[in-house]
């Protein structure tokens, strides 16, 4: 091999080695950022408390089933009225809604809590489709907590023919989830000490709901107690217990659902 050719070959090898080292550095940095992202994500998640975990069992009145895409609470007797589909709030683990979902199932309604990608309902708007399609002939209402309620409204606005009603827990229908012309009954539940709900937007977006929408305010309740998890960052301190708030929630839901039979 001539000297010039050896020089070119050596230069090419050095460049190839440099590119390889740069590629390894980039891959290494991406792995580090991914791990940091996972750590941050799991620190932000709202996990179910002891009340929720205690409800995740089959008992004499209900059957609990966990699947890859949902948690199901089924009455052991004959189910009555519409089944209930719940979209969780942002970064709230689905199991956090188990305490009141179990109570609602004891009243006779099958309840499905949807598992969302990265615990964000905005990434799984159409996940209700699978449940509805699996149960032809059955009726459903859909709703959710906080962001979950807004995304449930968007789903309902596009699939009103599949539903009997929509409910909101500390949430509202934005411009993409207008329900005022869909002919669907609506239940709006809020809590007087909610420090997370954007009350200005909630008031403004009432126009997106039918005039006949029902409004229930839980005095002394807050944002987090529509589920069962540790204190929500930025929320206000409630003046009633989690159980009291959820008992009122279930009472309001039952009253509303009984009108939809």
UniProtKB/TrEMBL annotation:
Matches recorded under InterPro entries: AB_hydrolase_5, AB_hydrolase_fold
Region (Disordered): 229-248
Biased composition (Basic and acidic residues): 229-246
Membrane spanning residue stretches: 21-42
Pfam family, one: Abhydrolase_5
UniProt entry keywords in alphabetical sequence: Membrane, Transmembrane, Transmembrane helix
GO MF: hydrolase activity
UniProt cross-references to SUPFAM superfamilies, sorted A to Z: alpha/beta-Hydrolases
Highest taxon in the source lineage: Bacteria
Transmembrane helix as UniProt keyword: yes
Protein name: Carboxymethylenebutenolidase
Taxonomic classification: Bacteria, Bacillati, Bacillota, Bacilli, Bacillales
């Amino acid at each position: 091999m001539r000297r010039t050719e050896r020089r070119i070959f050596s230069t090419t090898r050095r460049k190839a080695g440099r590119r390889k080292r740069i590629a390894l550095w980039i891959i290494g940095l991406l792995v580090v950022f991914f791990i940091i992202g996972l750590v941050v994500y799991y620190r932000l998640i709202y996990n179910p408390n002891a009340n929720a975990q205690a409800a995740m069992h089959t008992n004499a009145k209900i059957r609990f089933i966990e699947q890859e895409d949902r948690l199901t609470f089924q009455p052991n007797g004959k189910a009555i009225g519409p089944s209930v589909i719940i979209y969780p709030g942002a970064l709230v683990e689905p199991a956090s809604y188990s305490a009141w979902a179990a109570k609602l199932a004891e009243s006779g309604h099958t309840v499905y809590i949807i598992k969302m990608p990265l615990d964000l309902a905005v990434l799984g708007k159409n996940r209700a489709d699978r449940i509805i399609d699996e149960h032809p002939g059955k009726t459903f209402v859909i709703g959710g907590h906080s962001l979950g309620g807004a995304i449930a409204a968007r789903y309902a606005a596009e699939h009103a023919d599949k539903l009997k009603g929509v409910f909101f827990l500390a949430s509202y229908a934005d411009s993409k989830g207008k329900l005022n012309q869909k002919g669907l009954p609506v239940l709006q539940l809020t809590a007087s000490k909610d420090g997370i709900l954007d009350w200005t937007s909630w008031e403004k977006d009432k126009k997106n709901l039918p005039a006949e929408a029902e409004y229930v305010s839980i005095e002394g309740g807050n944002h987090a107690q529509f589920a069962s998890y540790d204190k929500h960052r930025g929320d206000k301190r409630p003046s009633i217990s989690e159980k009291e708030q959820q008992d009122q929630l279930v009472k309001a839901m039952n009253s509303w659902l009984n009108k939809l039979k």
